Amino acid sequence: MALVDIDELQLRCRDKTARDYIDEAVRCYKAGAYRSSIVSTWNAVFFDFLHKLRELDLYGSTAARNKLSEFERIRSGGAGRLSEALRFERTLLDMAATDFELLEPSEKEDLLRLQHDRHRCAHPSMQTSDTPYHPTAELCRLHLRNAVEIFLSKEPVQGNSAIKYLFENLNSEYFPQNPEQSVERLRSGPLARAKPSLVRSFYIQASKKFLFELESETECKKYISAISACESMYGQLVSSIIRDDFPLILARVEDDRLAYLLWFVASIPTARVLVTQPVSDRLSVYIAAVDRRSPVFGQVMKSAASMNVFHDAFEARVADISKNDFAHIAADDPPPSMISRAIRDLANAGTFRGAEAVMEYEVLPLASHLSVAETISVIEACRDNDQVWSAAKVPELLSKFFMECVANIEETRETWLEFKEEMRGGARNVWGNFGKLDEYYNQYFPA
Questions:
Q1: Are residues 200 and 107 in the same domain?
Q2: CB under 8 Å to 12, separation ≥6 — which residues?
Q3: pTM (2 d.p.)
Q4: Which of 59, 40, 38, 41 is nearest to 102 (CA)?
């Protein structure tokens, strides 16, 4: 790792008291007072531990509340409780690691070295009868950095309690389904400055639950949102997790969970490296075979449409997409084949109700994605097919379509005006039915 600017360490401390002690430790370090710097660094760890206990108390931790009460009894007892105060300080790292899961074993070892050196600096220890202990600048800097990176910059909830807290949050009715909002939500909890072990544990557990257990669409969307947010926050770490842990996980996905595997790799960009040829072949066969009456069919098609590797399999199934599935699949970036089908279905509609259904469920969901040429094709289909322009609901639906296509209104102006002339002229004379659309014409095509 790069050499950290020592002045930045103070800014990374979460607690004000700890930050003040680290500031003092940095100033001592720069002045060459290395013993004093190490003592101040340990003091920062001590007070940050108390601050973490207070935060855990707010989370509802009875153990943290009891430990704070114990410390307050010791503090208020003065000199009469000195031995208890020394014991509390001596066992601080054991409490942090064992009772509250705030430290990994290796991290505890690093801070034990700080505690040991603090004792050598604070007490009259001597290397010889007339030479006091002199820590080196390098040792002092090491303790400063370890204290901040291992402890002072971290959230207080770690280990099993952090995992429990994260999943309680994720399973909440109000957890967002939007990844950007999920990032903000997760940054307010244990994942804000989490250790790699916590990120790995949460990411793998959430992914396994999605791949092997979830059924509800709402739950699935929340989990995908959280997994995507985790990827946004810890991209490099997530890439290593995907590379190291997920090939074996994917191999365990049974046929009845392939819809969720497809959803997963389509939604998580980092996971797309997992779509090797065998995985691609397996999913392509599944896309071709999935029953269009299945409750997961719409999501399968949406996932397939978003990945080039499944282009052929998706194109082969476009004809099976129901009108109700169009809106679900077309929400983001519909493929050209869906647009072509919608325009073709509108031009070929053979009944009033069929024309209304095509307009409402196929054309309107795609409207904001249409090119100028495709928009013109829709207008011409409405103009040329009497089952469309004379259907009762089409005037209302076409007015909605007009507003969805306002972005290319200048390029389509002539076609819209020709449509009006056709509707109000000759034997048709139905423009009076297009009241809302006529209002929009007056607004965008003033005389």
A1: no
A2: 148, 149, 152, 153
A3: 0.62
A4: 59
